[in-house]
Design a protein that fits this description.
The protein is an alpha+beta fold and 574 residues long. The protein has 16 helices and 30 strands. Helix 2 runs antiparallel to helix 6 and helix 2 packs across helix 12. The protein binds adenosine-5'-triphosphate and magnesium ion (MG).
Amino acid sequence: MRLSQYPINTVKETPSEAEVISHQLMLRAGMIRRVAAGIYSWLPLGLRALRKVEGIVREEMNRAGAFELLMPAIQPAELWQESGRWAEYGPELLRLKDRHQRDFVFGPTHEEVITDIARREIKSYRQLPVNFYQIQLKFRDEVRPRFGVMRAREFIMKDAYSFHVDERSLAEGYAAMRAAYTRMFQRMGLNFRTVQADTGAIGGSASEEFQVLAASGEDAIAISDADDFAANVELAPALPPTAPRAPPAEPLARIPTPGAHTIEQLSTLLGIPASRCLKTLIVAGDDGTPVALLLRGDHDLNAVKAQKLPGIANPLRMASAAAVQAATGSRPGSVGPIGLTGVRVYADHAALAMADFVCGANVEDQHFTGTNWGRDLPAPAAADLRNVVAGDPSPSGNGRLQIVRGIEVGHIFQLGCKYSAAMNATVLDEAGNPTQMLMGCYGIGVTRIVAAAIEQNHDQRGIIWPDPIAPFTVYLVALNLQKSPRVRAAAEALYAELGAAGVEVLYDDRDARPGVKFADAELLGIPHRVIVGERGLEAGTLEYRHRRSTDSVDVPQQAALEFIRSRLQFASPV
Ligand code: ATP
Ligand code: MG
């Protein structure tokens, strides 16, 4: 491609609306343009990278034996009513009406449509297992679309759905997808981890996320420093402390704590660490009665864990100020477990290991000090309520946990019967009896991957594409070609030669200063750069540099094609 003819606008300045580096660079390189909040156009250069990602995803899905199909973006409400999600799905679901006032949704995912296809098309266990996938637009009306295409409202997903006659087949299908995902992300040159994930409201037996490691990632992941344990913090279990609780040393005392309504204010006022204060949170119960959750002051509540406990509303919600007042006689900020009656109480394991701690007195601006379980109040039910933190023992039994950030690019899931039961998707088993199909579902954020790859591969000057997903492989720069027929001739010859060899070249044949060309080369991040200039040609050489390297290599002009080929890094697809 000749850059002089390529529709591309690069921008020097960092766009102010872009918080993360990938969004900044995608805008500066002219890959995407915002149309509305969370809705983007992909311009030709960006689309090339996107198509590379799609290509790898498609190849690996096909290799794994899945069948590509294409389902509609707009889906009738009836299917969603059948599955129950018409009522369950919140405001993220974009609902529409047609001219006849019939209800539709713009699909955020396609379980209903595929289950409808499966129940019509698949009659016998002999047709199973089968895996269908598509690469298609989704819409989710995210509360906070941000980071460009990373958390968009409209985005492209590869979604796959497998159908099985029994659990064993489902587990095999799931393992095949896990292997395919691993290959895809390896081929894309991404640094990723496969982590245990929450199965959410659906339940199901297994679920894992593929997380691209990056500081800007929205997910926190707990990994062991001694083995390959990795789990989303949403789900990583916090082991109960093994050391015995210290015996009481202080008397219980009620003290005034004016203005101290947060753990931070309390620990500053009393000059003690947050870990000596008890955090009491009042959350909504599933029957209207609030529930008290007790945590060590320096620990954070884990909503995903808490909402699974009996008596707690799912999804988790904090109780209203009025409900807190009614249950405790006090406002949030002075609430504590002593004398709390008629309220179900759960204490985190670490909270139960505290001694001589400070907690709210259920009287405005008063706290207890020297509180001890058993002596001053009965120990409540123990539960795992908190997020794990760095240094916690790994649930695998080996080593300690570290917390790293990740971008979720894929999610695989053993769904079981949720949709086939709701939508009556059965096949005849070996004995000729109808049996519900089991289902797995497997998502990949195709557009998100492009941004995630940039988060992981950039420097202060621009993008550094891994070869397999680069929009072009070689950036060919001709210096001052307007003045030098020799440079033009050599560059044109190499451009033709590389093209004939199937190498994708972006040929900078613009009438522009070398500085402009170099700056764009760095920004666009095409991995292999070749410079054709007068001085080099004088000595019979061209200059090669990898985008990741600071050193250039002089290559004999005659050997340029072979040299460049030897530098290409495409993980073999076989
Ligand atoms: P997240 O936790 O990031 O909201 P999710 O768990 O809702 O994602 P899934 O329903 O598992 O996402 O969708 C499959 C994949 O689609 C995700 O792994 C992610 O890569 C991608 N994806 C989900 N939401 C978005 C979005 N708003 N923008 C871009 N990609 C997304
Ligand atoms: Mg997910």
